[in-house]
């Protein structure tokens, strides 16, 4: 039986305007060095819904720590970072990796199929998301806790 065309349909994702701008520049800058990673990231950015303001704390953005499971039986917790900060031993994965590009903009509970560098397709499910320490949502939340002047 042939697989359903919707089997690999990608979920709706969102990113902040600042992440979209920085990630677009990053993908463009890496186009000559790593065209596959650059194209993957640009393809994800082409389908995002850009938010001018804050996004929910359970949405994967740059600096988020996420726990994901995969069809390979993995259950991992990683932090999504820019390439210069990547350190797999410390659980910091680059946005330019297949998993990094696939996870940007996903919410807890969403799944996505992604293609590994060896060409095999895998499924990743975001279980939990922890907002970055300097989350775009943090200033608004802090302001609400201040007493009125």
Q: Indicate the CATH architecture.
A: Roll
Total beta strand runs: 7
At the first level of CATH, what is the class? Alpha Beta
Low-confidence stretches: 1-6, 135-149
Order of the strands making up the biggest sheet:
5-4-3-7-6
Q: Could you name the CATH homologous superfamily?
A: Transcription elongation factor, GreA/GreB, C-terminal domain
The secondary structure category is: alpha/beta
The quaternary state of the protein chains shown equals: single chain
Number of domains: 1
Order of helices and strands: EHHEEEEHEEH
Query: Average pLDDT value?
Result: 82
Tally the helices. 4
Principal-axis shape: globular
Distance between the termini: 67 Å
Indicate the percent of residues in helices.
25-40%
User: What percentage of the residues does DSSP assign to strands (E)?
Assistant: 15-25%
Descriptive key words:
149 residues; alpha/beta; Chitinase A, domain 3; 25% strand; globular; disordered C terminus
């Amino acid at each position: 039986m042939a697989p359903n065309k919707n089997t690999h349909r990608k979920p709706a994702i969102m990113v902040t305007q600042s992440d979209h701008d920085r990630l677009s520049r990053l993908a463009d800058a890496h186009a000559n060095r790593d065209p596959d990673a650059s194209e993957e990231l640009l393809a994800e950015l082409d389908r995002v819904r850009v938010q001018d303001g804050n996004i929910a704390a359970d949405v994967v953005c740059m600096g988020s720590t996420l726990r994901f499971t995969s069809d390979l039986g993995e259950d991992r917790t990683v932090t999504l970072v820019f390439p210069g900060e990547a350190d797999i031993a410390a659980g910091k994965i680059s946005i330019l990796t297949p998993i990094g590009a696939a996870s940007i903009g996903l919410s807890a509970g969403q799944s996505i199929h992604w293609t590994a560098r060896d060409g095999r397709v895998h499924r990743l499910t975001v279980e939990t998301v922890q907002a970055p320490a300097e989350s775009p949502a943090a200033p608004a939340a802090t302001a609400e806790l201040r007493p009125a002047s």
